[in-house]
Design a protein that fits this description.
Length: about 350
């Protein structure tokens, strides 16, 4: 005869937790160790197993309901009545009603009840630990115009997340506003410092990770490479990828490498080298404050600059075209007025 293992994972839309599934797996392990065969009753979104409503109770000698609260309600009473011919065992349950009023189990090894309380059985659960990965994405960078390929980078990162087991933690380094409920620079850095490694398209995502000895998979989302690529090369950090030749295979290799002690060692080395270089930069900055006013590196070649960069970045294409038309109209009016006045020098407002 078989045992049926059931729980809130056997019902649809019952807020099943990780603890429920860990307790389920433990119950199955314990049955195996006792030499009992078993089925597991599962409901969507979980697959496999059996539907407790459709199985014949005569198939089972024992029915174990494991983990969670077990209140007196329609679902629970329907379940125990369906299997009333079986030996009913309650395991790791929180009994809501006093058990001298309602206890439908032949054997009750409860987590807590009006009679006693015990540690939750998941203390014995053995779960493998998966990497905790910070995902730090940059916003679309309009300053690079058509070179930005942020969607391509984000899609590659999403494929990586979907294909590997990990805890992906979104981290926003922006503070105006912040989309991940972080309020200060200290909170941002503290969260990054606790990651096993990060995947990022942000310069400061890379920098703050390496600063704390955390490996970073850095992806420069600007075609041809920009500040992120430059920074990673300056630091001597090897895991930086150009969006122009990024492959899923390369990201998977980087993912595996970031879980090694070698990667963490290299991250700490990059940090140490960077600190020494920035200390020199600090001294250079302080020395520059004493330079005479005649010492200047200013360059402003008006004819070589792209005037479109001065337009507000929030304007739509239509608004930009309207502005261009207005500017053209001003130039035409200026020429006509100048001609009417006999080419005299005039001033017009813009």
């Amino acid at each position: 005869m078989k045992t049926l293992v059931a729980g809130w994972f056997s019902f649809e839309k019952c807020n099943v937790t990780a603890g429920d599934l860990m307790a389920r797996d433990l119950a199955c392990e314990w049955l195996e160790s006792a030499g009992h065969s078993y089925d597991v009753a599962l409901a969507p979104p979980f697959t496999g197993g059996v539907d407790w409503c459709s199985v014949a109770p005569s198939t089972y000698s024992h029915v174990v309901f494991v983990c969670g609260p077990f209140p007196y309600m329609n679902l629970t009473t329907e379940f125990v009545q369906h299997f009333s011919s079986c030996r009913l065992i309650g395991l790791d349950l929180s009994m809501i009603e006093p058990i001298d009023v309602w206890n439908p189990f032949d054997i009750l090894v409860e987590r807590d009840s009006s009679a006693c309380s015990r540690p939750d059985i998941t203390f014995l659960s053995q779960q493998k630990k998966v990497p905790i990965v910070g995902v730090i994405l940059v916003h679309p960078q309009q300053e690079y115009k058509g070179k930005g390929k942020h969607e391509v980078a984000n899609e590659a990162i999403n494929r990586l997340i979907a294909s590997r087991e990990m805890v992906a933690v979104p981290i926003d380094t922006g503070l105006d506003p912040n989309t991940t409920n972080l309020r200060t620079a200290a909170e941002v850095e503290s969260l990054i410092a606790r990651m096993d490694f990060v995947v990022t398209t942000r310069l400061h995502g890379t920098v703050l990770a390496l600063k704390n000895g955390v490996p970073a998979i850095a992806i420069d989302a600007i075609s041809g490479g920009a500040k992120l690529m430059c920074q990673a090369k300056t630091l001597g950090w090897p895991l930086v990828f150009s969006i122009d030749n990024l492959t899923d295979e390369a990201l998977h290799k980087a993912f595996d490498y970031c879980q090694t002690e070698e990667a963490h060692f290299q991250a700490r080395n990059c940090r140490d080298r960077a600190i020494k270089a920035v200390e020199q930069l600090r001294d250079e900055f302080i020395s520059a404050l004493a330079l005479p006013n005649s010492a200047s590196a200013r360059v402003w070649r008006e004819e070589a600059l792209d005037k479109s960069l001065l337009e507000p970045t929030h304007l739509t294409i239509g608004q930009r075209l309207l502005n261009q038309a207005r500017n053209l109209k001003k130039k035409v009016v200026y020429i006509i007025v100048k001609w009417l006045l006999g080419n005299k020098k005039i001033e017009i407002g813009t």
